[in-house]
Amino acid sequence: MSDLETITQKIAGAVGENSGLGKIIKVDFGDAGKILINAATVPNVVSNDDGEADTTIQISIDDLKAMAAGSLDPMMAFMMGKMKIQGDMSVAQKLAPLLKG
Q: 35 near 8, Cβ under 8 Å?
């Protein structure tokens, strides 16, 4: 199983049927793929599709893993340019707790 598949499954489990986010979020890993979290509908849908999103988070898979493990602080990742956010920053902040561990 690839890293993208594993991360997609973990995010789907964390988001559940109704995360309460109410928005569409795309996590863009560049050439490694994308994860689209459609939390604007219930049940929430998590896929590897590419599509329009209210918020897009650009990050490498390795940096996302480091954040999930607690060895990379999300704010530091953003300040260091390891994570870029386009769109509604508050949605990205609400998503962060779901990505832990």
A: yes
Backbone Cα Rg of the chain:
12
Q: How do residues 14-48 score in pLDDT, each as one tens digit?
A: 999 999 999 999 999 999 999 999 999 999 999 99
Per-chain mean pLDDT for the chain: 92
Calpha distance 88→85 (Å, rounded) = 8
